[in-house]
Amino acid sequence: MARILKPYSAKAGSPVFKVSRGGGLPVVLYWAEKTLAYRTLLWQKLNHKSACKSCAWGTGGQKGGFRNELNEPLQRCAKGVESIVGDLQGPVAADFFARQSLAQLQALSSREAERLGRLSYPVILRAGSSHYERIGWPEIYAIAQKAFARPPERVASYSSGRSSNEAAYILQLMMRALGSNNLADCSDLCHSPSTYGLKQVFGSGTSMVSLEDLKQSDCVVLIGSNAPANHPRLMNELIKLRERGGRVIVVNPVIEVGLMNFASPAFVPSLLFGSEISSLYLQPDPGSDVALFVGMAKSLIEQNKIDRRFLGAHTENSQAVIEHAQATSWQQIESTCGIERVLIEQAAQMIARSERVVFAWAMGATQQANGVDNIFAIANLALLTGNAGKPGAGTMPIRGHSNVQGFGSMGVSVRLKEEIRLALEKLLGRPLSRVPGHDTRRLIEAAAAGQIDALLCLGGNLWGANPDQGQASRALGQIETIFYISTKPNQGHFHGLASKQTIIIPVFTRDENPHRTTVESGNNFVRLNETGRTHLPGADLISEVEFLTQVAHHLLGEVPVDWRRLQDTAYVRQLIAQTIPGFEKMATIDQTREEFTIAGRIFHEPVFATPTGRAKMFVPPLPELRPPQIGDFGIEPSHRAIPLVLVSVRSYSQHNTVVYKEGDSYRGMPHRNCILLNPDDAQAAGFAEHERVTVIGKIGCKEQVEVIFGSPKRGVALMFYPEINAIIQPPIDERCGIPAFKRNPILVVASG
């Protein structure tokens, strides 16, 4: 079994851990606490035949609430319980919005907004009013009919992965029938480099690895992921991989304790004693992943460990990639990524000794100014070693929200696949608009320029998710009408306000819908959700499918389709089967209840979805990363100051912008206004642990920030998203619109 190496830092320093391992007894106690609080109701929801509402590592569906796509039991985690518990809250009081002014609502934190309760009746904030007020459905549809009758380029939508494939399909069909391609999505802010980059290389923008493949692998390279907090059930697969003698190479500028050792409640020995996760832990400088992977490629080439036969038969442009790695000096590689050659070579040797390698990554790799180049570099490494197009190996982006990938599959994208375009044109009986649509960042820019009149948000928190919340407030304030379709209040409802009218539509959760729906996991598996009922008696709720079809009917009547017929989700699935490639089995899923893996995405043979069937390799340039300097901030601080690279992260007990708990027990951060520093950086600046400091970013500052000692690499600091969005202004990878949340300059100065 490979040994755990001492966590690497570019300079000497002692890593600090606040807890000894991830998972374990705290998870068990949390389950017990919530079971006592909600008793039968919680377990009814846990066992409901519907997919988990948390991450895209899918469970539930027709196999039962605790089973995954391979029918394995005990596949629920604390993240899923958190989402259910949030939805089991009582309703927001009937007089709540009359009692709470907008100013009071804007003072709420994300957690406080989440704990207000379930939305149970529609409300509107009219221009000039200080309070939301209740509104009836006839007026809602009249407003929608007028608002979305504007020129198509001036109407837009934004969506999250909370909803169903059926709602996503109806949303994009309505928008395209109106003539608009402005279908912004939360994936624009998280995995758009994965989708864009993988499509360029393999012709498919999703994981080529199934859960069964992961069980056959003998090495996983885990890049930019804090899976113990965000995808805990993935840890079960890593534990089993290590137990069968496999290796886990972790690439992360921060030592996350759960990636060193994790105690899974699914396995008694692991729960009691913990399980070793990482075989090798590499801490590159944020944003330098390309240099690290070029270094691994260079080492493999020098060892003659690349698969030249595979490259010649199944790839294009491999020689240029090889020559680029050979021409790049070790000095340039080491100085760019901040990792010594000996450790890069050790990682390359681990990959070379492995028969089946899975390259998995999350937003640490994608949320960079060169996010697409990172994906190219990862794909190159997989192809150079022949770890693509065979069982147990390949590339695997780890998706966040439970159905975020399904939205892309249904056509909710500004980059619509040509085959879907042709099928939709046949269905609608006319050509679709070719005017390029706005992705999420461009939507905000267009709104700020006064180019958007109406916006429909299907879930999510557009205001909170944006990297510049001040800009987002101003931009959304230029839009006349905004509809928010939500289950619970969030900060975006109170800060992302339209100029004329802001309307909040309360909807059923996934396990409350009066009709069946489907969702898609991050590994391309489609799950069927059964009908359910709400625990909110007398609530004035509507399903997302019904609301969208009613809006479409008011706008378009029965042209070019009978929109109200789409309230029958079985009929929607028939349309999906006809128009979305790989979803042909949707046509019979209501009769067979057969959940399925989407055709054409899992590559067990090296024949890819490109025009030639070969993978196309790209040469990604090494980034030029300049460390921040004190002079960059235009001030003359006290002698106690240090410039750092900030990585914004989600805390443990957080889902996207929703905060369930204020603190982070994994990192030892007791509240949201903390900064995690390497003790050596703090000592160099004269900061003590728990001291309060000021953190200055590109567009603002945060005061009274508590210093917590932890294990980021020297020169790197961590703070929580979305709060930190108020002071940073990340650069954008213009190829896909991703903001670089994971590398931003800050100056930490002594308060006062």
TrEMBL record:
Pfam families: Molybdopterin, Molydop_binding. Keywords: Iron, Iron-sulfur, Metal-binding, Oxidoreductase. It comes from the Bacteria. GO terms for molecular function: 4 iron, 4 sulfur cluster binding; formate dehydrogenase (NAD+) activity; molybdenum ion binding; molybdopterin cofactor binding. GO terms for cellular component: membrane. The keyword Glycoprotein does not apply. This is Oxidoreductase alpha (Molybdopterin) subunit. Residues 644-744 form the Molybdopterin dinucleotide-binding domain. Its EC number is 1.2.1.2. InterPro entries: Asp_de-COase-like_dom_sf, MoPterin_dinucl-bd_dom, Mopterin_OxRdtase, Mopterin_OxRdtse_a_bac, Prok_molybdopt-oxidoreductase. SUPFAM superfamilies: ADC-like, Formate dehydrogenase/DMSO reductase, domains 1-3. The keyword Kinase does not apply. Residues 118-482 form the Molybdopterin oxidoreductase domain. Coiled coil: none annotated. It comes from Gloeobacter kilaueensis (strain ATCC BAA-2537 / CCAP 1431/1 / ULC 316 / JS1).
